[in-house]
Specification:
single chain, alpha+beta, nine-stranded mixed sheet, five-stranded mixed sheet, 22 strands, 43% helix, elongated, disordered N terminus, binds adenosine-5'-diphosphate, binds magnesium ion
């Protein structure tokens, strides 16, 4: 043993630039103290791997045996010990790596990131030093693999002073002993240690022993070759990661080594109709060490819906999240994952279309979200997105266009895609569309309004209309509609009658069309535009103006329908006399008012005399009063003619708008009419 290598009992001051960083670390790193265990175990694993590399190079004389890291704890004494049979350290190395580098780099690190310290907690970079978050004293007892180097013991009490002395250690490797401070003592409980080891060290590549049992799997699935793995193994791995979840739909095994390193397995979970619940399940690893399960800024938002693991030594883990977003590697990784996900879906579309169709309902929300939020993904998804119609037949975008173009192009040369959001609720409208030979898509995710907006913006001359948005002859207008066959006067009268029977909540705009005699007598529709914007604002499209408007409906009276003809006849019989008198009374004031308006039109506001203004007001009042009486007459008519209420209620009923008392009244009336 040479003089030089003989460890001498000595003391010294740790080489830190910051005067005393221990208090800083205690003060700032309060929320994630538990990472100390991960750091120590990771160092121990590193030490065994370095040894292995040296041995492979023929640089280690002795047999290195199986690498193993052992954790022991004494909850009574409040100590935790991490032991490895790795490379070990000489006295010089302890001086260099622990006293100088480890501490000074931790000091620099803290200096640099003081402002964002909360962002970096739980990430790498503090290494060995993090043990002082929980320990009042730390000892290192280590013996280098170099056979001539004697063992040394380093000890530090959480201040810049340390001691170093010869140690009594025969086997190669390192032992780190933490003497926990009072408040950190619970970390020495066996249940706590097990919990932390399972969280951070479950997939470490070297055997980790705790209470004589290995707690880890050294070759987790993502590190193995896809060709060697079965479907069942992928499923089991998923079940192991997410014990409470339903089985996933598909998986992708990622394996990249250029221009960055990345491995992992991503699973497509079943996503029904809620985006939030399955979010943030991807676990991020760095060389098999668990880092975090919040990957928001590492993968694009829509990909956070996926589950699984990503392992990359190239994601800079010791910096803040805002930095991550602009990091070139992180961007490349995002792009790559997006591409892989699209590749997989396209492959399914091409080679396993039936499988894809079967799983589509659980997948479409994810895909629509991706298309809405990522342009690149949109371009890819155009090739594999599946339109599903009301009869559950699936079409690619292109196939669908070819199928509906001949029959669903209107007179303006717009291609109209009809869709429904609910097969039951919109049953009547779907049926009548199908009777006209039209196809109806089922688009029923919470993103539908946004999604059809997106498609309309991408596709020229294409419009999406929900099947109940208007009468079909207007949704797909192939020719000009003829003018309604009843007079304006009569339309006015009937409008008043219908307004008397519609529900009080919501606005109903009554108008008249000559539809086909076998169409419904009355149709209630909701304008596509209003409905869509209302839906978009409901899920946070920002258009709150539309969201706060009362619901409005179009009530179309089909003048060609025999029942409407019948109502007109009855109206005529019952109200002719009264309406005639009111109209006669109105004639004179109306024509005087019209004349007055004509003469006023030519004048400027200040030239209109007070007299004229008063006269105008009087005439106006008279006419309003007559109109009020007319409305009364029509309300009375609506009250005595059950048909008006009946045809309206039927329309409400087929739109799910008839409820409670109104529904009961309808049933009673129906029975009496029978
Ligand atoms: P990092 O692991 O990022 O290098 P650490 O602060 O965790 O930083 O460790 C500092 C250095 O101390 C390591 O690089 C290594 O040289 C040395 N070291 C720490 N733990 C061990 C160990 N168990 N065996 C051998 N060397 C170790
Ligand atoms: Mg380390």
């Amino acid at each position: 043993m040479s003089e030089q290598n003989d460890p001498q009992k000595k003391g010294g001051t740790i080489g830190v630039t910051t005067n005393n960083i221990f208090p800083i670390i205690k003060k700032f790193l309060y929320s994630d103290h538990e990472i100390f265990l991960r750091e120590l175990v990771a160092n121990a694993v590193d030490a065994t791997q370095k040894l292995k590399a040296l041995a492979a190079n023929g640089e280690v004389a002795e047999e290195i045996g199986n690498p193993v890291v052992t954790i022991t704890a004494d909850s009574q004494a409040g100590t935790i010990t991490v032991t490895d049979n790795g490379i070990g350290m000489t006295q010089e190395e302890v001086e260099k790596y622990i006293n100088q580098i480890a501490f000074s780099s931790a000091g620099e690190f803290l200096d640099k990131y003081k402002d964002q310290i909360n962002n970096i907690i739980g990430h790498f970079g503090l290494g060995f030093y993090s043990s002082f978050m929980v320990a009042s004293k730390v000892e290192i007892i280590t013996k280098s693999y170099l056979s001539e180097a004697p063992a040394v013991k380093w000890s530090c009490q959480g201040d810049p002073e340390y001691t170093m002395e010869p140690a009594d250690k025969a086997e190669r490797g390192t032992q780190i002993i933490l003497y926990l401070d009072e408040e950190s003592k619970p970390f020495a409980e066996s249940a706590k240690i097990r919990e932390l080891l399972l969280k951070y060290c479950r997939f470490l590549p070297v055997e980790i022993l705790f209470e004589e049992k290995a707690i880890n799997e050294t070759q987790p699935l993502w590190t193995r070759k896809p060709a060697d793995l079965s479907e069942e193994e992928y499923l089991n791995f998923y079940r192991q990661l997410y014990p409470m979840q339903e089985d996933p739909l598909f998986y992708i095994h990622l394996n990249v080594d250029y221009p960055f390193n990345l491995t992992g397995i991503l699973y497509f979970p079943k996503i029904k109709d809620r985006l939030d619940i399955s979010r943030n399940k991807i676990q991020l690893y760095c060389n098999q060490v668990f880092v975090t399960d919040s990957v928001e800024h590492i993968v694009p938002d829509f990909l956070t819906l996926l589950h699984g693991v990503i392992d990359s030594p190239d994601i800079p883990l010791n910096v803040s999240r805002s930095y991550l977003q602009s990091d070139a590697n992180v961007k490349k990784i995002s792009t790559h994952i997006t591409k892989k996900v699209a590749d997989r879906l396209e492959e399914l579309f091409k080679n396993e279309r039936k499988n894809l169709e079967e799983k589509w309902d659980n997948l479409k929300l994810f895909i629509e979200y991706g298309m809405l939020s990522d342009e690149k993904f949109y371009e890819r998804a155009e090739k594999f997105y599946l339109f599903k119609n009301s009869d559950k037949a699936c079409f690619s975008f292109e196939e669908y266009k070819t199928a509906v173009e001949p029959n669903q192009t209107d007179k303006e040369k717009h291609l109209i895609y009809l869709y429904a959001s609910h097969l039951q609720e919109q049953y009547a409208a779907i049926e009548s569309a199908k009777n006209m030979g039209y196809d109806v898509l089922l688009l029923d995710t919470p993103l539908t309004a946004h999604f059809v907006n997106l498609l309309e913006s991408k596709w020229k001359d294409t419009r999406f209309c929900r099947v109940d948005a208007d009468v079909l002859s207007k949704l797909i207008a192939k020719e000009e509609l003829e003018k309604p066959s009843i007079s304006d006067e009569e339309q006015q009268d009937l409008r008043m009658a219908f307004e008397a029977v519609v529900p009080k909540e919501g606005h109903y705009y009554v108008h008249f069309e000559n539809l086909r005699p076998d169409d419904q007598p009355v149709l209630i529709t909701r304008s596509e535009f209003m409905r869509r914007y209302r839906e978009m604002s409901a899920i946070g499209g920002g258009m709150n103006f539309y969201g706060s408007m009362p619901e409005s409906f179009e009530l179309t009276v089909n003048c060609s329908h025999p029942l409407i003809q019948l109502i007109l006849e009855q109206k005529h019989n019952q109200t002719e006399e009264e309406l005639h008198t009111l109209a006669a009374e109105r004639r004179e004031p109306q024509s005087t008012l019209d004349d007055l308006h004509k003469s006023m039109e030519k004048k400027k506001t200040e030239e209109i005399s007070q007299e004229q203004k008063e006269e105008e007001q009087k005439l106006q009042e008279k006419i309003t009063e007559l109109e009020r009486q007319r409305r009364k007459v029509m309300e009375a008519f609506a009250g005595t003619c059950p048909l008006v209420g009946q045809v309206t209620d039927l329309a409400l009923l087929s739109n799910n708008l008839l409820q409670g008392q109104a529904l009961t009244a309808f049933i009673k009336r129906s029975l009496s009419l029978l």
